[in-house]
Structures are given as structure tokens and as C-alpha cells.
Amino acid sequence: MAATSLPPFPTDLPVQDLLVVDFRLLKAGDKEQADILWRAATTWGFWYLKNHNVNDFVESMFEMGKEVMALPFKEKMKYWQGNKGGSFGYRHAGATYTDVDGSTDVAEFINISKDDALTYPDVIHKVYPAPVNSHMKEVVRPFIQACLKSSAVLMDVFNEKLQLPIGTLSELHRPEKECISEARCIRVPPALKDTKVALGAHTDFGSISILANKLGGLQVLVSAGNTSEWKYVKPIDGFVICNIGDTLSILSGGVLKSCVHRVVPPPGLQFMHERWSLVYFSRPINDVYLEALSEKSLVIAETVKNTDKRMHEPGMTAAQWFTKRQKQYRTDSEKDIENILAPGPKDTQEQN
Ligand SMILES: O=C(O)CCC(=O)C(=O)O
Ligand SMILES: [Fe+2]
């Protein structure tokens, strides 16, 4: 649905104003834009990006996602991501807990590996539902390539500001190496009566996330002194929302901030609509050991001098850590696929 035919984002809600980075200028080496990006990434860890070409593929990615989610539940589950720490493939709604009382999420995903998209029709990790394959070359791959280009530019700015040797961060994220980077299309149904949280509070596991959405619902946890408050991030037509994830925060010794966020039902009259969002998660190469790059940067070394390593460094590689995190908060960790396929309100077609 075109953004213009959707109800507007309400004007009376707590909103976190994010800085806007002009990607075209940033890519051309504009120092002011690099400073804006640095300020955003070292304070809130979230910012808007404008004048980028990721947008060229957003609508077609949503179309692909809609075709996938319209498939019968059994068909989607043939491509299930599983519950053993993998991510690629289909993830059904309700797969994770959103609070300690046992509420569950209401979001379903299709996750497509960067490696599989770049090598298609060769398969590195996973095969995908038919609509992913039929749009792989014209839509999914170019979308991922645009995200790779954008994140490489952002990464180079962080590299310079962190005073790391040239190319350090890009070497740890080389696109031709295997990793868990992926594109994700998310569907949240029109708000169900008692849904408080559509996707639970989390930080992103990876380095940089690039997000496109049209309806509100994304919230960031903003701390001021001893209190913290959930604030909405307002979708802006043509802009994507970017954020720092945990791995880049760890590698930078905490200089770059990975902010807690969640998705609640769209606010105001937007609640009646299906919510679609699209994310590209840029993650380090699988065997990158997750630790602050203190030996390569005085900026990082100075920052970590007084921090407890155990608080920030998981002591394992990016792939091991991702698998561990991915298994957390699952509602289905003891279940096999037959159990999940048993009749229930999971099929989006049956729900609506
Ligand atoms: O749908 C959104 O707006 C955000 C999704 C998100 O945070 C995630 O998938 O990690
Ligand atoms: Fe997220």
C-alpha cells in the first residue's frame, strides 16, 4: 500500500528525533555528514539516511515478502529457520517471548542470507520459498548489494573516526566471505486486541542494520539519568533508518552504541493496517573473534581501559555468538516441526 493512503503517524506521541545523514554527500567525503553520523552512532546508535539507492528496491522487496507470507503455513514451514540457532528461512509468528509473563511476538519473517543471494542459483546455506527465488536476481540480490555498498561507506567513516588502520572494519565484513548477514522482510498483522508488543525488546546482533518501514511501531529505549522511556521512531518517506548492532559496538569497545528497541502495534489509526518492514543486517565474517580492537586504536584502547571486559566481550566468534543469541527466548526450543504444524492460529491466511 502506498504510504500516502495510510493513516498519518499521530502528532501527540513521544518521538525520538534522529539525526539525518545525507548518504550522497557522505559517500563523496563530506566532513560535516561524517560528523553527523559519528554523533548519532556514538550517542543513540540510530539515525536516518537519505539520498541512498537502497530505496529503489524497497517496494519490490515488500511485494516479494507479501507473496511469501501469502503461502499456506505448511508451505512456509518447509523453509523453517529451525530452532537450533539458525536464522535463514521462514520464522513463524510467536517464536519468541516478549516478556517474562510469557507473551509472545506476533511478527513473521522471511530471512534471506546475503551469501545465498549473491551466489544464487548456487546454494550456500539454505533454499527459499518460490517467490524469493523468482525475485532473487532482479530484486533480492540488488537490494542486498545496495545495502552492502551503503554499509561499506558507513563502516569506512567509523573506521576513520575510530582511528583504526585503513580498511580494518571492511576487512572484518568482506562481502565475499561467509557470514550471517541477511535481508529480512517482516509482517505484523493488523493489531490484535491484546497485543502490547509485536516484536520484543532487543539489540541487533550484527554490526549495522538498515531498516525500511512505513507504519509507526518501532520504539527505542532512551535513557536520561536514572530513568528510561520508550520513544517512537517516526517513519519518513524515502528515508531509511540505520542502527548500530552489538558486534560493531563490541569491536569499537563500546564507542559505537547499540540501542535497545522493539516494535509495538502501529499507533493511532495505523493499528488497523498490516505492518511491513524490511531490514538488512550487516554482520561480521563468521570467524571474527568478538573483542574490542584496542590494539589497533588508541581511541578504543582509551575507552575500554576502565571497563570490565567480561561485561562487553562474549569470548567467542561472531558465528558462535549469533547462534547462542538466536536460541534465546524461543518459545519453540523443545518442539519439533510436527508439533509446530499442529492446528493453531499460526496461518496468516486463517487468521485474517
Ligand atoms: O520492524 C521494525 O521496524 C524493526 C525490526 C527490528 O528491529 C528487527 O527485526 O530487528
Ligand atoms: Fe532490531
UniProtKB/TrEMBL annotation:
Molecular function in Gene Ontology: metal ion binding; oxidoreductase activity
Biased composition (Basic and acidic residues): 329-338
Record has Metal-binding as a keyword: yes
Keyword hit for Protein biosynthesis: no
InterPro entries xrefs: DIOX_N, IPNS-like_FE2OG_OXY, IPNS-like_sf, Iron_ascorbate_oxido_reductase, Oxoglu/Fe-dep_dioxygenase_dom
Domain Fe2OG dioxygenase: residue ranges: 179-284
Record Pfam families: 2OG-FeII_Oxy (PF03171), DIOX_N (PF14226)
Taxonomy, superkingdom: Eukaryota
Region: Disordered, residue numbers: 328-352
Keywords, ordered alphabetically: Iron, Metal-binding, Oxidoreductase
Family as reported in the entry's similarity comment: Belongs to the iron/ascorbate-dependent oxidoreductase family.
Protein name: Clavaminate synthase-like protein
Taxonomic classification: Eukaryota, Fungi, Dikarya, Basidiomycota, Agaricomycotina
